[in-house]
Automatic annotation (TrEMBL):
Quaternary state and interactors: Homodimer.
Sorted UniProt keywords: Chlorophyll biosynthesis, Decarboxylase, Lyase, Porphyrin biosynthesis
Designated name of the protein: uroporphyrinogen decarboxylase
GO terms assigned for molecular function: uroporphyrinogen decarboxylase activity
Family annotation (Pfam families): URO-D
Native organism taxonomy: Eukaryota, Viridiplantae, Streptophyta, Embryophyta, Tracheophyta
GO CC annotations, alphabetized: chloroplast
Pathway field: Porphyrin-containing compound metabolism; protoporphyrin-IX biosynthesis; coproporphyrinogen-III from 5-aminolevulinate: step 4/4; Porphyrin-containing compound metabolism; chlorophyll biosynthesis
HAMAP family (alphabetical): URO_D
Length: 413
């Protein structure tokens, strides 16, 4: 199966938004040579693991995650709510503690809905943090203005493991309550997204005592105290699995697993110290929640794509350093992808944003793609650019013509 038509088409794309579908040519014979074209796509084995077939009421994002046919790529953004929005900054002035904002049901719901009310994305992700569940299984932490997360009692010795206990989901009631309310507020018009940190990434904070640029303590532990580290990772795996199931039972349609610092490991080390624990999480969650798509995102994942696929997740999140067409070639057509516009593009002229969205969507193909940034929204990003990103995405149509976007060229010059 050749990918050269897709690659060359991606590299030469520079078309007007109103003519996007003609340029994509998803129904032409030439494009039937690569995975994703509707006419030639084989039935995807990936969907077989879902016990109930996708219904007409499933959100667009869930359908795309499963690889089902959709009319356009669903869109959301990592760090969708946050400091780039004036309404968030105003709320943060009134509630300066991040822990308060991310652990108070009313505030979680209000902040999560801010981008929904402004942009109507296809996914509404709960406002939270990957460290939020730590106190629920015995690891208290603080967030300082300058240093960020701080864990006063890092786990580095066998005796330190005594502080750990099974996750107490009652201590995370605000997460479940918020997800239930978000489902009611969104009302089926978008997918409600939950998320967790992967065991390795969570362990980096617990071992290092907070954020780090070098990861020397935990990387050394792989060799100096491997049994201790395995015990910690196993404990985190069980806790995170239960936390995901709790989020799904509270209403989350889809869960993203952030192995944010997995890319700091050499691929063979990731294979040993991160992949098995993510794979176990996927297996446990799949058994309990067979209809819930799971997304795996790693920052700096270019050297890990094939290994990521081996975890069994439904969607691979791509950062912006990976070429979308190359990722499709490496991953094959039996898994969905998410991404991967460079967040810095949102500081560019809107016409450049439009062209980059077109390029990414074309390279991804019309099946199994969730449009997103390749990382979170950057602080200082113009809200106008975020609005434009969503407007362009909604104008796309895989099997028709671009809707209501022909006026963009006159606006953008």
């Amino acid at each position: 199966m050749s990918f050269s038509p897709l690659t060359s088409a991606c590299s030469s794309l520079g078309v007007k938004s109103s003519s996007l579908i003609v340029q994509l040519g998803f129904h032409t014979a030439e494009n039937n040579k690569f995975p994703g074209a509707f006419v030639s796509s084989p039935k995807r084995t990936k969907t077989k693991k879902f016990s109930i077939a996708c219904s007409s009421t499933d959100p667009l994002l869930v359908k795309a995650a499963r690889g089902d046919p959709v009319s356009r790529p669903p869109t959301w953004m990592m760090r969708q709510a946050g400091r780039y929005m004036a309404v968030y900054r105003k709320l943060a002035e009134k509630h300066p503690s991040f822990r308060e904002r991310s652990e108070t049901t009313d505030l979680i719901v209000e902040i999560s809905l801010q981008p929904w009310e402004a942009f109507r994305p296809d996914g509404v992700i709960i406002f939270s943090d990957i460290l939020t569940p730590l106190p629920a299984f015995g690891v208290p932490f603080d967030i300082e203005e300058v240093r960020g997360p701080v864990i006063q009692s890092p786990i580095r010795f066998e005796d330190d493991l005594k502080a750990l206990h099974p996750i107490d989901l009652e201590k995370l009631h605000f997460v479940g309550e918020s997800l239930k309310i978000l489902c009611q507020e969104v009302g089926g018009h978008a997918a409600v997204l939950g998320f967790v940190g992967a065991p390795w990434t969570i362990a980096t904070y617990i071992v290092e005592g907070g954020t780090t640029r070098t990861y020397t303590t935990i990387k050394s532990m792989c060799h100096t105290a491997p049994n201790l580290l395995r015990t910690l990772l196993s404990h985190l795996t069980k806790a995170i699995s239960e936390y995901i199931i709790y989020q799904v039972e509270s209403g989350a349609h889809c869960i993203q697993i952030f192995d944010s610092w997995g890319g700091q490991l050499p691929p063979d080390m990731w294979e040993q110290w991160s992949k098995p624990y993510i794979t176990e999480i996927v297996s446990v969650v799949r058994n309990k929640c067979p209809k819930t798509p799971l997304v795996l995102y790693i920052n700096g994942n270019g050297g890990l794509l094939e290994r990521m696929k081996g975890t069994g997740v439904d969607v691979i999140g791509l950062d912006w350093t990976v070429d979308m067409a190359d990722a499709r070639k490496r991953l094959g057509s039996d898994i969905s992808v998410q991404g991967n516009v460079d967040p810095a593009y949102l500081f560019s002229p809107l016409s450049a944003v439009t062209k980059e969205i077109q390029r990414v969507v074309k390279c991804a193909g019309p099946r199994g793609h969730i449009l997103n940034l390749g990382h979170g929204v950057l602080v200082g990003t113009p809200e106008e650019a975020v609005a434009h990103f969503f407007d362009v995405s909604k104008s796309l149509n895989y099997d028709g013509s671009s809707q209501n976007h022909s006026m963009e060229e006159s606006k953008l010059g």
